[in-house]
Amino acid sequence: MDWLFFGEISLAGLAMGGLYALIGLGFVIIYKATRVINFAIGEIMMFAAYLFLTFAGGMEMSPWIALPLAVLGGSILGGVIEKTMIRPMLGESSISVVMVTIGIASILVGLVELLWGADPQLLPGFLPRKPVFIGEMYLAPKIAYGFLIGAALLIVYLLYFRFSRGGVALRATASDQAAAYSMGINVRRVFNLSWVFGSLAASLAGVLVAATGGLSPQFGAIGLSVLVVVIVGGLDSIVGALVAGIFIGWLETVAGAYLGGEYRMPATFAVLAVILIFRPYGLFGTHEIERV
Amino acid sequence: MRIGDAKQNYEADEAILSSSTQKIWFALFLLALLIFPFMADSYLMYLGCLVGIAVISTTGLNILTGFTGLISLGQAGFMGVGGYTVAWLSMNTGLPFPVTLLLAGLLAAAVGILVGLPSLRVKGLYLAIATLAASVFLHFIFAEWESVTGGMGGLSLEPAHLFGLTFQTDFAMYFIIVPLAVLMVLAAKNVFRTRIGRAFIAIRDRDISAEILGINLLHYKLMSFALSSFYAGVAGGLFAYFFRVVTPESFPLSMSIFYLAAVIVGGMGNLLGGILGAAFMTLIPEVLQLLTAALTPFYPNAPIFMSPMLEIIFGALIVGFLIFEPHGLAEIWHRIRRFFSLWPFRN
Questions:
Q1: Which ranges of chain B would DSSP assign to H, the alpha helix?
Q2: Span B276-281, mean pLDDT?
Q3: Three-state secondary structure along B246-272?
Q4: What confidence tens digit (pLDDT) does each residue in A162-181 have?
Q5: Lowest mean pLDDT among A54-63, B68-77, B242-251
Q6: A107 FRET partner, CA 20 to 30 A, in A77, B131, B145, B347?
Q7: Does any domain span residue A138?
Q8: CA A134 to mean position of chain CA atoms
Q9: d(CA A50, CA A211)
Q10: Residue A243 forms part of a structural domain
């Protein structure tokens, strides 16, 4: 076995996993606050990446202005989706709400095709091109710097939720909605903000992933991998999203490199199936007790 | 409820067609289905067959999702099992179509039971994701098990045959697909007049309460999975006979979502809704195509916008129905019917 090759593949996988962790975090924020499983998260990422394409490519802005603008656009999209399409579904069965997000995903795919065309596109390169070596191991610079930017946002988020007023409000709503209401927390605003913050994380990850792998209207399929991440980690666990994100990213890349690209999805879904059978609430999720 | 329509005994109360008016309309409907192929051109024929297949599959998914409350994203995978079974059997054994279709349904049902096993431990969205995992595995098997499934190239098959008759044209296929669709919808209707069907509904409404009432959850959930995937398997088999080729891409994940959408748009937990939803969702792309053709002389770019518009309309229908008309087309149908049966009164 070639350990250097294995190390390089693993490193690339772990870096990809870092981005998965970031998307997973966006997913978990939305789920924790509103109990909505967001099947449209891949499409929100895609939308933000296309916005970046327009700002940086078409309008020739500096990438470092285009990136925040695209991420902002993605977050606003998340907020608008929550206000117009998720809010009316409050109190409906979870199946219906999930189907609404699937519908939203379809609408977004159509919109992107309508606005930007169906052909695959390349994002203008904005990350440093100098190869990165960790010890002997080579790591593609796009992946390395993408990981660093993603990790930075991840840390900001973790601090924000731990210490800020908004973060505390979000955690309070997640743990007991009625109590949060009676303590004067504006739960509606928390719902809206959770979609904005969740979409923000996803949007940033979307631009970074698209910068390494290219962009097409099928980009949203990455949402399926993220689904695996959050189920394995536990839908309502931030730690779970981080650990599972890094693990699934690594597994997917290693399976792709050693067994061939067609094994990427089955490998991660095999882990998913095992988790669903033995620990349905995920590695770190809360085990809910159901009463009649 | 109609005025002056008091039932005298349980039998009358349970009847599928409760009044003579309904019986007449149903007979007329069957007659129309019978006459349709002799009046329609080949394009309408083709659409009729597509709708028939969609009705069978949607009814199957309705049993599972609408009546038992178990959401499934694996319907296309189960249809694939049926399609590949039929294709393989027709290539290697030459059995007549009733046998191959039955075997396709049974094999799909067996796979359905296997996929349904986690439903004892997980439910709701977790179950949806378990079925999603199943459909990923099935797609993988279709694409990689080359000795049986022909890999990415897929399999092409002989036309359906029985007693020396071959069913090659759409016209001939219509006489397999539509009677089968009518039969299977009636069978489903009858299931919900028995203990089994009522157990499904009880599980949907509150599974823990159902268990306390003495319904064996695992048993009935698996039965629902088996029944639903049997329908999917038969629909997949018909799909294979109709297009005479199956590839892994014939049964994509978007197809599972299509059938879920058909169930929702039609009306969850309503067999009539399933039929309406299947027909509606199958016909939308065709209507859009006609519209595009009509617009092309004025806007030469119209065809480019068709496929994205289809995605948008598809999504908007799902969202719109869920927000504004959660009971679906079936509810609209009932409202229209009530209007006419109460006329000239409002309500």
A1: 10-14, 20-39, 42-61, 75-92, 97-116, 125-144, 146-149, 170-191, 195-205, 207-212, 217-243, 253-266, 271-295, 302-324, 328-342
A2: 90
A3: ECHHHCCHHHHHHHHHHHHHHCCCCHH
A4: 888 888 888 888 888 888 88
A5: A54-63
A6: B131
A7: yes
A8: 26
A9: 11
A10: no
Q: How far apart are CA A149 and CA A289, in angstroms?
A: 39
Minimal Cβ distance to B143: which of A102, A109, A262: A262
Residue from A107, A225, A226 whose CB has the most chain B CBs within 10 Å, to mutate: A107
For A249, the token pair is 């990213």
**Domain boundaries in chain B?**
44-342
For A83-105, what is the mean pLDDT?
86
Q: How far is A227 from chain B (nearest CA, A)?
A: 8
Start-to-end CA span in chain B (Å): 11
Four-residue CA torsion sign, A245, A271, A280, B125: positive
Residue ranges of A 205-234 with Cβ closer than 8 A to chain B = 224, 227, 231
The Cα–Cα gap between A260 and B143 comes to 13
Residue A104 falls within a domain, yes or no?
Answer: yes
Identify the contact set of chain B against chain A, taking CB-CB distances under 8 A.
65, 69, 71, 118, 121-122, 124-126, 128-130, 132-133, 136-137, 140, 143-144, 206, 208-209, 212, 257, 260-261, 264, 305, 307-319, 322-323, 326
CB B326 to CB A108 under 8 A? no
Token pair 């772990």 is found at A14
Q: How many domains does chain A have?
A: 1
- The label of the residue with tokens 């999203």 reads A241
Distance between CA B298 and CA A197 in Å, rounded?
44
Token pair belonging to B321: 């129905």
Residues spanned by the domain of A140: 8-217
Residues of chain B found within 8 Å of residue A103, distances taken between Cβ atoms: 261, 314-319, 322
Distance between terminal CA atoms of chain A?
55
Q: What is the pLDDT of residues B217-237, one digit of tens each?
A: 888 989 999 999 999 999 999
Mean pLDDT, chain A, integer: 84
Query: Which element (helix H / strand E) includes A201?
Result: helix A187-213
- Whether pTM > 0.90 for this model: the answer is no
Closest Cα of chain A to B209: distance in Å?
7
| Residue A112: closest C-alpha in chain B | B308
* Cα A241 from chain centroid (whole Å): 10
B319-326 long-range CB contacts below 8 Å, 24 or more apart?
Answer: B319/A85, B319/A100, B319/A103, B319/A104, B319/A107, B321/B264, B321/B265, B322/A89, B322/A92, B322/A96, B322/A99, B322/A100, B322/A103, B322/B264, B323/A85, B323/A88, B323/A89, B323/A100, B326/A92, B326/A96
Q: How far apart are CA A114 and CA A217, in angstroms?
A: 10
Instruction: Enter the CATH code of domain B44-342.
Output: 1.10.3470
Quote the pLDDT of residue B229: 92
* Max CA pair span of chain A: 61
What ipTM was reported for this prediction?
Answer: 0.83
> In one letter, which amino acid is A153?
L
Q: Is residue A246 part of a domain?
A: no
